[in-house]
Amino acid sequence: MVNVLWLKMARELWQRKGSLASLAAITAMGICLFLAMASNLRDLDRARAHFYSSCQLADFSLSMKRAPNWALQTLAEVDNVRAVRGRVNLPIRLQLTGVDEPLQGTALSLPQVRQPIINDIVLRRGTYFTGRSQEEVLLNDAFARARGLQPGQRLQAVIQGGEYNLLVVGTVMSPEFVYAVPAGGGFTPDPSRSPVLWLPERFLQQAAGLDGAFNEVVAMANDPSPAAVRLTLTQVERRLDSYGVQLAIPQEEQSSVHFLANELKELRVNSIFLPSICLGVVALVLNVVMSRLVASQRGVVGTLRALGYSAWSLRFHYLGYGFVVGLGGGLAGLALGWQMQKALMGVYRQYFEIPDMQATFNLDLIAIGLSLSLFFALAGAALGVRGALRLEPAEAMRPPPPEQVKAIWMERIPLLWKHLGFQLRMIFRSIFRNPFRSTVTMGASFVATCLLVETLCMLNAVNYLVDFTFRRTSFQDVTVALREPIEVAAAREVAALGQSGRVEAELSVPCDISRGAASNRV
Length: 522
What we know:
It is a single chain. This protein is α+β, with helices and mostly antiparallel strands. Helices cover about 50% and strands about 15% of the residues. Strands 3-4-9-6-8-7 form a six-stranded mixed barrel. The chain has a four-stranded antiparallel β-sheet with strand order 2-10-1-11. The chain has a two-stranded antiparallel sheet with strand order 12-13. Strand 3 (about 90-95) and strand 4 (about 105-110) form a beta hairpin.
């Protein structure tokens, strides 16, 4: 008996191969998206957590004018401060051979001798400082690769007005610059315009006139929760207030951390939302396909029941259609998802500088993906055959009785109903007498329209943002940033250079605006 049902299913699968293959393709798309995004979410999050912990990424940092080294001892006494390090952080300009405009970047201090520190680095090429010269420099690996720079080459740098000929001894990665944007501003990383230099601490202190002092503090907290860190920052700012605190940043507001966290958040949402749409469509369509198939085979079902086939054997027979769609689509989706996972990880390597970013083989996610494809396909098939198989053999062999219908609510309004044409009356009756089908159709149209409108609105929003930012507000050709505030009269000197059509002076100061528990830095 089982062989007959298998032969029947094989014949009917071949007859409906087009529609069922389409459903399997949609299933494969959903499982592909799930596996690729969920796996990349796990791989990125694992690589990020290891990078942050191994390099001891600071829980918060503070920038100030100048503070003596002994001020670190007072900070170490603050509650919740586990470790603290002072360093020098300066803007720099690089002049490369063959590059017309100078490149704006950042210079950070490191101890002369390698040791575990807060905001440590990972050496990629070359060596750490050798001590043979004070003008040795470590360069961020992304910038070095983009510009073709190798250890042993020299760079011309301007630091606090002084020109230096720096020797590149190595290239490194840092958890502070996982997503490095150009110093002049921007939203997308450009490694060729984002130089970050690490120099010996004593050399950078002398270049900045900060002998025995620092202008930035990075610290680790015993309790790294956001609320505890903000409370600690308030206490630290009070202790360093006399040294001219300019900016206090918790870890989650650091630009590189913020961009990466947002990307992981989007991956988490998309790994659930997009596959759910595809698999939900498969379940709904398979429900319709199976209900029509069983309805068309009502007499066959009655005959088989009369010949001794149980309702459960027929139920498993029709569930086989869903099993084939779910299994075929799931396996194809897993194969495509593995390829998409590796391709997507390659894209992330172009944007995020994290060591050991590798696409790993996650057996649990593969099992979950295959289970999801089978669950949605079998659920759709089960809903489609649930009613017809409850009939007794004699009743199933007869044609179905006419439906018992009632007047819809619109028919009870004669003034409205009599003005509708015959076709409109048929349409409204079909809609309101099949509430489930109508609701599913409306829901599918709703989701499709949402996706279309969201895409068009996103394009329009980006175009408006670009137009508003670069045509209406920040439409300057050149921005000159100064180390110290100077008199407004200096703007006239710039205007007198001859090439400046209009010059405006601007004072930019970071500040926190707060009301109650809400605050925002502007």
